[in-house]
Every structure is written in C-alpha cells, then in structure tokens.
Amino acid sequence: MMRFGEAGRAILLALLRLRRQAAAVWARLGAWQWGVALLLGAVLGIATALLSVASGRGELHAGVWATSLAYGSEAADMRTRARVALFGLLALSSEQTVYYTASRDGSGDLLSGDCTYIVTGRDLDARWWSITAYGPDSHLIPNEAGIYSYSKSSVAREGDGRFLIRVSADRQPGNWLPVRRGERFDMTARLYNPGAAVVENPAAVALPTIVREGCR
C-alpha cells in the first residue's frame, strides 16, 4: 500500500504535469487569440483607411460633384495620393485638368443602374471636356453600343445650347450613356485646360445636374 508521503508526492507530480500541460495549451490558445486579434486589428485598420480614402474627406463640392485641386500635384497629401491610386484617375495637375466625380443624384441617392437619369448642362469652362460613367470596379462599363462617355465634340445639343445625356441600362433617344442594371456607378467630368475661374474656385463652377427620371 502506498504511503501517504509517496501518495502526496505522486499527486503533486501529477498536478505539476497537469499544470505544465495546461500552460502549454493556454500558450497555444493565447498565441491563437493574439493572432486573431492582430488579424482583426489589421483588417479594421485597412478598412478604416479605405473608408477614409473612399469618403473623399477634404474635397471640394460643386452640387453633387466633388473635386480636389491636389490631384496630380506635388502638394497632394497621402489621402489624395491613395485615392488617385485606388480609383485610377491617372490625374494630371489642375492647370492641365480638373476632375469632378459624382456618385449621387440631385436628391442625394446613390447612382444605380436600376434607374434612368438625365444629366443636363452647358459647355463646361474648358478647352475640352468629357463625362464618363464608371462601374463599381472603377472601370468603363461594358456595353454593346460601345458608348462610354460624351465630350464637347461628341454630345448633341438642344436648340438653346444645352445638352441632355440620358444615363440608363435601357436604350434611350439622343445622348444615351449605358450603365448596367443592378450595379452602382459613378460619373467623372474632366475639364482639360480649364478656365482660370475653375482653378481659382472649383466649388463655384456650374456643372451638369443629375436628375433621376425613374427606376425599375
């Protein structure tokens, strides 16, 4: 029969072994937990950075259109540089080109391929200008008509000099800019060799209105 001292020693050794095993398991579990925490922290940090870039904080607004004169300039901060890299603007300096983007209509709703919009305006204050639609991947929107934008030289004008561009997934009369049903999109207006007033006060520029005509 095992004596009390030997039994106590055996129990103590068993407890020590159990403690070492528990410590090893906890160490592995702790490392896993730390790994998950670090991963979540990294994902959250990246998501926050992307949200900050995508939100366009610090931009100037002219109606539903947003711009920044820092695009393409040496004065661009890190957020502006990241936004250019993320959305592929291939930005030139403001003396050469001013870029305006719109992702919402005049009512403040996000632009959707399930709706039809009328973009109305007059010639923009630039030697040459264009208005282009981009899909959610920031690329041109594929379409059978092969129409991706309208410009100063290609848009048809009304008798009073205004132009009307109908943006829709369904074929439209006149200036039709196709988009894809079920997808978000945005539009970019480029003003090449802009007038002095545009560079001096881009928020005061008269840009086309975007009115939602209807949705499916």
Fold and architecture overview:
The structure is a single chain. With 216 residues, the protein is of the alpha+beta class. It has 2 domains: 1-55; 59-215, Sandwich (Jelly Rolls). Helix content is 31%, strand content 26%. The chain has a 4-stranded antiparallel β-sheet with strand order 3-9-5-6. It has a 4-stranded mixed β-sheet with strand order 8-7-4-10, with no helix packed on it. The protein has a two-stranded antiparallel ribbon with strand order 1-2. The protein is elongated. The model is unreliable at 1-5, 42-57 and 72-88 (pLDDT under 50).
Mean pLDDT: 78
Q: For the report, how would you describe the main beta sheet?
A: 4 strands, antiparallel
CATH-defined fold name of the largest domain: Jelly Rolls
Total domain modules: 2
User: What is the tally of helical segments?
Assistant: 3
What spatial form do the alpha-carbon principal axes imply? Answer: elongated
> What's the architecture of the largest domain, going by CATH?
Sandwich
User: What is the number of strand segments?
Assistant: 10
Provide the spatial order of strands within the biggest beta sheet: 3-9-5-6
Instruction: Identify the CATH homologous superfamily of the largest domain.
Output: Domain of unknown function DUF1214, C-terminal domain
What are the secondary-structure elements, in order, as H or E?
A: HEEHEEEEEEEHE
Question: From the alpha-carbon coordinates, what is the Rg to the nearest angstrom?
Answer: 29 Å
In percent, how helical is the residue content? Answer: 25-40%
Please identify the structural class as seen in this structure. alpha+beta
What share of residues are in beta strands? 25-35%
Low-pLDDT residue spans: 1-5, 42-57, 72-88
* Highest-level CATH class of the largest domain: Mainly Beta
What is the terminal-to-terminal distance?
88 Å
